[in-house]
Amino acid sequence: MNQDTKNEQPNGNASVKSKRKKTGWRNSQGAKENLPKPMQTGLPKRKREPLQPTSNMSDHYRKRKRSVTKQTECYSMSNRLRGYCLIINNYTFERSTSLGNRRDDLTRVFEKMHFTVEVRNDLKASDMQDLIKEFASKDHSQMDAFVCCVLSHGEKGTVLGIDGIQVPIRDLTQPFAECHTLASKPKLFFIQACQGEKKLLGVWMADGHKNTTEEGTFEEDAHTEAFHSCPIGADFLIGMATVEYYKSFRHTQEGSIFIQELCRQLEIGCPRKEDMHSILTKVNRMVSSQIFEGCKQMPEVRYTLTKTLVLPMKQVL
Predict the structure, then answer these.
(1) Which of 139, 241, 310, 312 is the most buried if burial means most Cβ atoms within 10 Å?
(2) Catalytic residue among 194, 263, 270, 295
(3) Is the pTM of the predicted complex or chain greater than 0.90?
(4) How far is the C-alpha of 310 from the C-alpha of 271, rounded, in Å?
(5) Are strands 154-155 and 158-160 parallel, antiparallel or unpaired?
(6) Which of 153, 179, 251, 263 is catalytic?
(7) Cβ-contact 277, 309 below 8 angstroms
(8) CB under 8 Å to 299, separation ≥6 — which residues?
(9) Are residues 110 and 85 in contact, defined by beta-carbon separation less than 8 angstroms?
């Protein structure tokens, strides 16, 4: 073999090796292409999310929106003119003028709470109903609340006009339940009258001591029977002088015990921004702790309020 042939042989071998390598690559590639495909499970492939540091996990995943509700929502009392306070004061059939004294106290208290107080004395049953409809038809859109105080005789579920004709409590509340400008606004009714013929007797406490005292001279309030009517609609509060079937009392000089204590607790609690439920609970406690002619009196509050009611009162120095 000559020198030229020797020199060419390595080059030829290299060429062969190169071809083999290429062929092997092609064969292996072809073999890979001919491999059996993995079995399809029928489930879609889950798209992998890119890995992120744990510090960013809260930003990566969507946050669930949580509805946050306030535990104590209050009725809005933002208007300077708080609302109307209607006082119906029937007392001509009374020997004393004690109901008139309570009227003056109510006027003073609610004027301090920025209510426009209007007093109507000695109304017949038909006049009472007409007056209620008149106030229910007023525009209360620029006001925050409505208050009605009734001082009169009463019978089962009613109050009486000075003509002795009954006016159902429902007829006092229903027109305001249908008043659109008072929708979702508190409507307060305070009724001073007996609710029955029975006298409420005291019960000895467990320790054998009474926590009540009797001072002054008292007399039974107007005759009446049980009050069964309920507040109509939402956002009503009805404060009754006594529970069903029982009498209420008034002092011969100072007037109605319930109204007297109501005015006192309002003047104490409202400047402190206490809610009406707390104030009326104190009224219940103070009235029930006294003795009147050897008997007791237990006020009752019924309400369908949907928010906390706070009536701001300006402090008079």
Answers:
(1) 241
(2) 194
(3) no
(4) 10
(5) antiparallel
(6) 153
(7) yes
(8) 239, 240, 241, 242, 243, 258, 280, 283, 284, 287, 288
(9) yes
Q: Using CA atoms, how far apart are residues 193 and 247, in angstroms rounded to an integer?
A: 8
60 given a catalytic annotation: no
Low-confidence ranges of the chain (pLDDT < 70): 1-72, 93-101, 194-232, 244-255, 292, 315-317
157-161 contact pairs (CB < 8 A, 24+): 157/225, 157/226, 157/227, 157/228, 157/229, 158/224, 159/90, 159/128, 159/191, 159/193, 160/90, 160/125, 160/222, 161/90, 161/123, 161/124, 161/125, 161/126, 161/127, 161/128
CATH number at 113 reads 3.40.50.1460
Query: Is 194 one of the catalytic residues?
Result: yes
Q: Is residue 41 assigned to a domain?
A: no
Q: Does residue 4 sit within a domain? A: no
95-119: pLDDT as tens digits: 444 455 678 999 999 999 999 999 9
Sole residue written with tokens 């004690």: 98
Q: Provide the number of structural domains found in the chain.
A: 1
